[in-house]
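Protein chain data
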Amino acid sequence: MRIDEIVDDLLNRFDHLVVKKTWGETSLFFNPNGASAHGSYFVTVKDSDGENDKASNLDRDGIFRISFGVSRNSYEALFGPKPPRPLKGGVVETGHDFTQTNLLMPHPIYAWMNWLQVLNPSQETWNSNQNLIQESYGLSKARFEKR
């Protein structure tokens, strides 16, 4: 799949999303009617390394990362206890090869916050993880409504 296909799919299926280009990535926020300055993070798409985010080696040709948060229960059901927060510029220690494509795994920086990543998902991988995407949307909506 391509980045634009994924973003279009999300925009077509989920209500009240706003797309913003921030910190070198495309971010989708839950933000009904632009009620908030930023809204609540839902999904991020990144295609280049950042100063403190090089573990996925996104600077390779054609490589991009889809990231999204899930509940602690979902994270731990998939990957066991979440890792501690890494130091600035550090990477969580989970034993994963964060450069591997088409595989759901913990996010190399934000796994401690229950975030997951997939580099260059195939249509099959994208489809097989829609329950987690739906959960992420629900969590984003709940965070927004708590404010």
